[in-house]
Amino acid sequence: MPRPGNDVVQQDATQESSLPDVAPGMDATPDVSAPDVATPEASAPDATDAAADAADAAPDAPTPVPCPPAASDFQPRTAMASWAAPWNMCTAVTNANTYPYFSMSASAPVRVTRMGALEGAGRIFDPTRDPTPEEFVATSSDAGANTSAEFLFRDTGVATRYQRRADEHYAVPTGLTLNSTYQDFCGTAANAMANMDYCAGPIALNPVYNASLAAGMAGTSPTRVHAARLQASYQWWLYISTFKESLTCAPVAADCDSTAGYYAGSATRDGAMQYGLARDLLALGDAGRAAHDRIWDALLAVRCWRAMDGGSMMPSTNEALREQARLQLDRALTRGIMLIVQSRLRAFASTDANPMRALERQAHAAWLGVVGPLFANGLERWSRGWWASQRASANAAVVARVVTELRAGEMITTTQAGRASADLEALFPCP
Amino acid sequence: MRGSSLLSLLLVLSGVAIAGDASAQRRALARRDRSPRTAHEAEPGATVRGASSNGQHGARAGRASTQTTRRDMDERVVRSAPDALRYTAGVSVQQTAHSQASPYVRGVTGQQVLLMFDGVRLNNGLYRQGPNQYFFTVDAGSVDHIDVERGSSSVRYGSDAIGGVILAAPIEPRFDPSVRTFAMRARAFGTYTSADSAPGGRAEAEAQFGQRVALVGGAGYRVAGPLRGGGGNPRLNADGTRATGVDRCQGGVRSLGENSLARTPVLEDDCATQKGTGFRELTFDARLHVRINARLQAIAAVYGYRQFDAPRTDLCAPTWASDQACMRYEEQFRTLAYASLRGDIGEAIRDLSLTVSYQRAHERRRFDNPTGFSGQGWIDSVDTLGVSARAATPRFALSRHGVVGMTVRYGFDAWRDTVQSVEWVRYNFSGRVVDQPRGQYVDGSSYWYGGAFVESEVAMRDQLIVRAGARGAFAHATAAEQSASNTRGINRGWGAFVARAGVEWKPVHHWSLMANIDQGFRPPNLDDLTSRQLTGPGFQVENPNLGPERSTTYELGTRFRSLPVDFDAWAYATRIDDAMIRAPRTLAECGPSAMLCAASSTRLALVNVKQPAWVLGAEASMRVRLLGKIEASATVSYAWGESVSPLEFGAPTLPMSRVPPLQGTTEVRYAVTREAYVGAAFRWATDQTRLAYQDTLDPRIPAGGTPGYGVLDLRAGARVSRWLRVNAVLENVFDSAWRVHGSSVNGPGRGLMIQAAAGW
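Above: the input entities. Below: the structure tokens describing the complete assembly.
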């Protein structure tokens, strides 16, 4: 018997190869009339090279890869009667399109609040215009003071959480036990310095946040570059936060709610109130939509695991089930962030031949300068088992190449961007 | 610190005597100094006010009440006024910071416990839900005794008296009948507590001008260093070196669920010293009594408290930011001034207390985040003007031979709060400061509240006493609309009627049985109505339709009083109706251009819920005196609270937040001589695993609950000379790790507490 809301057919999840060419959060048609006053020489490659790069950067559309979910995945969009064990024991999820919070008054909706508020400030992330310094940091109490990016980062608590966020894709530091104090680890400066990959928030993201806001507040031109870096740090933070909460949900059940909160800022699969990575993915066409659906399935898997393993008041003890749910989430999320990176690579490449879009290109490069190295480091050193296996089975040359390309950061060329886009698709064809 | 210690030593040793005019008067004062300073220091068993402590004698007949006396405070060497209540039945003293403490009375605190100082309300319209620090701003050095009345008591005391009332009474100047012209004397005491390396002292002067005018004034200062908790030690590696990393400590306060160190406080490398502790405080007071006639006095008094650089321990460092971030109270000030007429007027008006008061509470807070982009600052101040009057009739006979007598008490009070509130941001990289559109509260908002009451007591042969009373109360809140922050204006008032009834039956001379029904109420205050902000559960918007919450306490008690034995036992049930809790709100209720609100997926407002919350509990206390030399007392208390669940699934009710577990105290005192004593004290509490859902998210509460504890203190004291008395406590003898449920500060580890008092 079909469950209410299970109107999304399974087939959707197998057609995920429609590749967008626009970065999330951007209009499909950039405002070319916007005056770019900066000199293109600062960031644009040589015209000849650019032409060659552009030619190289037009990869053939990859052949769609069928991506059925793993047999062990929770598939809430199928009829309940077909749910495989242990998911058939899950009674917490009654609608495939709704995430049931552990508590409306718990901390999870706060994460939701952070998400929604920051998306409200998303106008500064438009790469086709230079935000004013007041849009970064309001320097008076006049109207607008409560809509600046800094205000929203600060008052929603995101800014302080940059200072302690761990990337759980890396190996957990020795001696760190998964309990209620687990997530305090990277907040200690000494711990962060000794575990720089793991403590990505204080080491990699917080400095970007501080520097970008300071430069934006000072009006250092072009300000869109600073906004792009801010956005990049924010999107990566959402990516690692969503995954992190799925782990710390083991000792504190409310963190499961935060998993959904950080990903979508919403309790529903669809609808207007989608924020964060969910909104970014839904802007990427069919591929993004498919990735979003698989992530949403995985969020419900995490919710089911925790409901079946301790519930709201008791800690989790079933590590195997926890990791089964988290594996599903990790794969889907990584496919999602890959699509977002890929779209940015394409957007960067698309501006190559148009001098009027030189500043926009700089903004894309700035974005890649933040996320590219982080992604590259992860591809090299993430310790998650599934990725380690995939890395081992992949063409080592491809992995090495994409790592190099992403690590180029802001100096990436159009050619490299094109190759990286294709290589990433090859590495993460499915959620 | 060394300078501070020196200051303390000087205070201890240099209580300067200021001579009076005549040797006779000096001798008279000296005689008085050797005699008990206040009535409570009289012989044990005396039936004067404050003659004993730990639940036997309270301010009000027929109610569950406890008095903590000056002697109790001196011999315990208390750190603060809330600290003085740790041996009080039915009270648990929670601490969010070393410099803060919030007494829970019968399972509730904050807005639901009324604080009063010499008859003047301390509660104002900014008192917030949950624990608050404001009783800490009462200088224990200026207090003569503290009464705690447990159970709802709004008929006599007004709003907020849901769980009970805490009444602090100050030291008063005394009229010595032998002084004819002028006499003056000085006292000083110094304290040092080693667990927080806190030297402090108070100097006090008292003067008498003939038989009509007397005054007392004092000033104190204390510097508290970082507080060392008990039971924590660095873990050693096999080679004897200190372990590092996350597993560097052993012992300490650990979670019941995980056996991991509590998330707060952050510990220094010694695994005992707590970051985010330490502060400075300055106190001052002056009190003038003018005798109008033998039974009537005019009083003018001022009391000041100034606290500086006091970190909030759970936010220094917060669990949600870098370990270098810190929230601190740069200033936590309170000033209270009042003039009062007290005594009897003729035969008809007895126990008059007519008081006009002014109080200013001021906070300046700062959040530093050196690794972040900016820090924040706030100033919130509230000025309160008050007037209160209460009096009683003489006992008049209702029967021919006076077998049945009646006394009526009556009074009124009115208070007005005016709020100043600002907030700013300071940018780390530039130092630039930018004002925010509004502060935590609406600047300029005001709050009126008060009421009038009447109580009667009918006694038949002093064997059966029936008490009843009622109060009519009002409150009115005003806050201006503010477009820049999309704050809606408020202009609303509330009325309330509460009543009480009680009966006391004395089947035999020393034994009483009591039954009471007493109501409490609390109208929504400015904090409920205007503190618009992101809260734990979501974005909170105003609800102009909030109504008062009400409580009814049903209690049964028995009391046995004799010279050798005092015993009290009470069982109670408090029902809270229309309790204010947070509930979801719709997007439409955000109003226009309220970005944070509109962007939130969860919008909340305080609402009055229809389902009642219940607190059930029992308390008992006993005091035994043997051979005129030995005193032993003990208390035991338990509270069980249950309220509507905030969860959308599961049980419809859950435990109330931070209700204390089963707990108790024991104190033993042996008078070696008339001037010397030794003693011991033991405090204990069981595990508290009954947690509200929000408790499971609160870093102040270790995962799975707060572990129980037992803490033993040893005490001794003596008058070592005509001028000098010393009290000493070896606290936490076994260096136990302990923490009161809901606190973010661990209790002090083993240490010495010493108080030396000199007087001339």
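Note for the figure: Chain B touches chain A through 64 residues (CB under 8 Å).
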